[in-house]
Design brief:
Glutaredoxin, 32% helix, globular
């Protein structure tokens, strides 16, 4: 029997494919075209953790951003946060690196490689998969 519903907090429930990915402890970052800027020869999933630098691009008006922030707080992670509404340099970096203005966006840097992950459910799944103590 496959679990397809996961309760993160009393107010957040992940269902469907994302819940299955988390429960199976596998995250495919390329499930949607354009969610990362990985080259074709790189694997479809990454598990970085040590030495990885995470930056979350967000807007205080975005409910999906708060979902990601709640997960970051639950996991007790230290993640740089860039507000694209008040920080023009952050908005420019997001547009240049990620290619679109959409938030939340998690920028992952590791050993000279750079990935831009959109979609709050994908970001939450990635963080739980790679930073959960379970």
């Amino acid at each position: 029997m496959v679990c397809n519903k996961l309760h993160l907090t009393s107010s957040i429930t992940i269902t469907g494919k994302t819940a299955e990915l988390i429960m199976n402890k596998f995250v495919n970052l390329n499930t949607r075209a354009g969610t990362t800027r990985a080259s074709a020869e790189e694997p479809a999933h990454w598990v970085f953790r040590p030495g990885e630098n995470l930056t979350l691009y967000l807007s205080p008006l975005c409910g999906y951003c708060y979902r990601v922030l709640m997960t970051i707080n639950q996991l007790k992670l230290s993640v740089d946060q860039k507000n694209i509404i008040t920080d023009n340099d952050a908005l420019s970096a997001l547009l240049k690196g990620g290619g679109k203005r959409t938030v939340p966006c998690l920028h992952i840097e590791h050993e000279g490689k750079s990935f831009w992950m959109y979609e709050s459910a994908d970001i939450i799944a990635y963080l739980i998969q790679n930073y959960s103590q379970n």
